[in-house]
TrEMBL record:
PROSITE patterns the UniProt entry points to: CNMP_BINDING_3
CDD domains for the chain: CAP_ED
Name under which the protein is recorded: Crp/Fnr family transcriptional regulator
SUPFAM superfamilies associated with the record: cAMP-binding domain-like (SSF51206)
Domain Cyclic nucleotide-binding: 10-116
Pfam families: cNMP_binding (PF00027)
Amino acid sequence: MKNNWDKFSHYFKQQEVPAKTILLAEGKTSRTMFFIDKGCLRTWVNNGGKEITTQFFFEGDTVSSIESFRTNQPSLYSIESLEPCILQTLSQADFQDIIENSPELKKELEEHLFKRLFHAQQLFYTYLKNNPQKRYEELIEQYPQIVKRVPQHYIASYLGITPVSLSRIRNRV
């Protein structure tokens, strides 16, 4: 998505963060959108002290708690770096200015939101329909970079299983 934003590059600020950096904490209001130049981010929710990973993002992806970013409501999830990252950040005010002055980027944002909704629906239905092994097989088929770059305990959390169960599945696959 960033390429189409290049004419607005003066709005962006580069940020380098080490691994395990919380960029947005669940319950806080999102004021920043992140474009990943290098690295990996994840989103996760806290369920009674247990972290449940909901999504992974890599180079070229855009990440924010878009619901919070657009409505000023508290974020439903946290955003954290899994690797050292180089990010381009965009403030809420600058984003609003760009969207108001660029109908083509407003349309692009709409498409991006539809893709995220579609991805969320796919994930929801795969939890309903598939067993953990089938979910893992689909993950490695659709997103091989996750298996190569993300620690196993985060993948297990994402799949809704324990790390021990994931290890057993990996041995069978």
